[in-house]
Amino acid sequence: MGAYILRRILLIIPTLFGIMLINFTLTQFVPGGPIEQIAAQIHGEGDVFRNITGGGAEAGQQALSGYEGARGLPPEFIAQLEREFGFDRPPVERFFVMIGNYLTFDFGRSWFRSISVVDLVLEKMPVSITLGLWSTIIAYLISIPLGIRKAVRDGTRFDTWTSGVIIMAYAVPAFLFAVILMVLFAGGSYWQIFPLRGLTSDNFDQLSLWGKIVDYAWHATLPVLAVTISSFATLTLLTKNSFLDEINKQYVMTARAKGLTERRVLYGHVFRNAMLIVIAGFPAMFLGVFFGSSILIETIFSLDGLGRLGFEAAVQRDYPVIFGTLYVFGLMSLVVGILSDLMYVFVDPRIDFEKRAG
C-alpha cells in the first residue's frame, strides 16, 4: 500500500503541472484582455486613469502590448504596467516563474483589490464553509437512512412516492429552488420567516454566543437547503442501489438461513459492504460541494463567497486569483483522490490497491 500511495503522490506533480500549463496557455488566446478593459474604462471614466497612475487597486489591470483597445493610452504607461506585472517577458518565462512561486505557496496579490490572493480566499471562505460543510452533513444524515429504508422496502408505495420526490429534487436546478425558497419563506409573496441576504445580521458582533449561533443558522438555512437538494437526491439513490446489490448476494441468504434477525443481517453484515462506496466517496463529495460554490446561489442570497470570487476574477482577468485558486483547488482535488482510496481501505481492509496495481 505504501508503494501505491507513493506513486499516487508522485503522479500529483505532472498532473498539476499539466493542469496549470493547459489553463495558462488558453488564457493567452482569450479575447477581451485586461488592456482592452483598461482602455474602455479610461475612455468611459476620466478618473480611472488617475486611480491607475496613483497606484490604486485598478493598477492591477495589467496591459498586454499589441491590443487594439490600447490605442490612445500613453505608451510609457503601458510599458510601465508590463514591467510591473511581468508582461514584458515571454509567456514561457512567465509560466515557469509563476510555477516556481506556487511551489512555495507564494500566490502574489490580486491585481484589482490590493490584497494577497491567500487573504482574499480566506476572506471568502466562510461562505464556502457554510454551504459546503452543512449541506454535506445534511445530505448524509438524510440520504443514508432514507436510502436504506428504500432498499428494504423496494417496490412498495413508500419506495415509489419517495423516488418521485427524489427525481423532482434532482431535476429542479438549485438556483430555481433557491428562488422558490425566497418567494415562500423570505418575504417574497408569502411568509417572512428567514432573512433575504447575508450570513449574519448587522448587529452580529453585539450578540451573545448563543445569539450568534442562532443568527448564523437563521441566515444559513435557505442557501444551505438550496445547495443540498441535488446532492441529497444523488446520494439517496446511490445508497439504495448499493444496499440492493448487497442484499441479493449469497452471504445475506446464508445469514438469514442461520436465523439472524433482519436487523442483524442488515446492519451487521450488509451495512459495511453497502456503505463502502458511499463513505469512501465522502472526501470527494465534500470537496466538490465545498469548492463548487454556485455563483447563482451566492448572487440570489447576496453571499460573497468563492463562487462569486471566481466569476469576478475570470471577468476581470485577475490572473493571480485565477491561477492561485486553480493551483490550490487542483492540488486539493488530487490529494482528495488519494484520501478516497485510503477511505476504501479503512472501510474494507480486504481491498489492496497494491495488488490491483500490480
TrEMBL record:
<feature type="transmembrane region" description="Helical">
    <location>
        <begin position="160"/>
        <end position="186"/>
    </location>
</feature>
<keyword id="KW-0813">Transport</keyword>
<keyword id="KW-1133">Transmembrane helix</keyword>
<feature type="transmembrane region" description="Helical">
    <location>
        <begin position="321"/>
        <end position="347"/>
    </location>
</feature>
<feature type="transmembrane region" description="Helical">
    <location>
        <begin position="216"/>
        <end position="239"/>
    </location>
</feature>
<dbReference type="GO" id="GO:0005886">
    <property type="term" value="C:plasma membrane"/>
</dbReference>
<feature type="transmembrane region" description="Helical">
    <location>
        <begin position="9"/>
        <end position="26"/>
    </location>
</feature>
<dbReference type="InterPro" id="IPR000515">
    <property type="entry name" value="MetI-like"/>
</dbReference>
<dbReference type="Pfam" id="PF00528">
    <property type="entry name" value="BPD_transp_1"/>
</dbReference>
<keyword id="KW-1003">Cell membrane</keyword>
<comment type="similarity">
    <text>Belongs to the binding-protein-dependent transport system permease family.</text>
</comment>
<feature type="domain" description="ABC transmembrane type-1">
    <location>
        <begin position="125"/>
        <end position="344"/>
    </location>
</feature>
<protein>
    <submittedName>
        <fullName>Microcin C transport system permease protein</fullName>
    </submittedName>
</protein>
<keyword id="KW-0812">Transmembrane</keyword>
<dbReference type="InterPro" id="IPR035906">
    <property type="entry name" value="MetI-like_sf"/>
</dbReference>
<feature type="transmembrane region" description="Helical">
    <location>
        <begin position="274"/>
        <end position="301"/>
    </location>
</feature>
<keyword id="KW-0472">Membrane</keyword>
<feature type="transmembrane region" description="Helical">
    <location>
        <begin position="127"/>
        <end position="148"/>
    </location>
</feature>
<dbReference type="GO" id="GO:0042884">
    <property type="term" value="P:microcin transport"/>
</dbReference>
<dbReference type="GO" id="GO:0055085">
    <property type="term" value="P:transmembrane transport"/>
</dbReference>
<keyword id="KW-0997">Cell inner membrane</keyword>
